[in-house]
Design goal:
Layout (H helix, E strand, L loop, with lengths): L5 H18 L7 E4 L2 E4 L4 H17 L12 H32 L3 H23 L15 H33 L6 H26 L3
Antiparallel strand pairs: 1-2
Helix pairs in contact: 2-5, 3-4, 3-5, 4-6, 5-6
Amino acid sequence: MVLAHPSFVRDHRLLIGVFEEEETPKREPKLLRHDKGCVSLENPFEKIKSETRLVEKIGLVIPGYRGYRLKEMRRDADKLIRNYLYQRMSQSRDDLKTSFQKLVDIKLVEAYIDMDRLVTRMDAMASQINYAPYGYAGFFDPVKIQEGNLDRMMDYDLKLIDQVNELDAKVKQFRGDADTGYFVNVQKGIREMRAAVDIIDKLMGDRKKIVQGV
């Protein structure tokens, strides 16, 4: 029997190691992209945690909100959101009506014309949020909905809550100034409130597209 030289065995093993390294590339974790960034598929609990945080944030403002994960609760979640938005918009509209009357009393013609248009628009938006039917929207059908759309709905819900509250703060500031007879920045205040309403209108339109499956 012929024995291999020790150096040959050592070199042979090193050579095998080189080929093994070349033939076994390192595995990179697969990534799933969604609104919050990239989450490793090897750790799906990160996505669950993200969804849970969204539900909890909204639930702090709207008790009973559970998100859209369960199909039998989707209509309830949608109704809770729309009721909240309607109530906030209605309160802001009523506050603006009070301020509008003060502008009329002091005869700020240009200001109260713009204010009248803003009040009318907010009234129409509040009614649309509360009463506009979605019909047989695909989002509420008892079928599987893409998870991305469920996440997007909750994102829009949270953004809308923040925006109606921001609008309400601007309206209260405007009314406070009007109640004390401070009318220096009337037009600026109206522009800011109108811009906030524009954002709400855009968010509602985008959210409605998801509900209708557009």
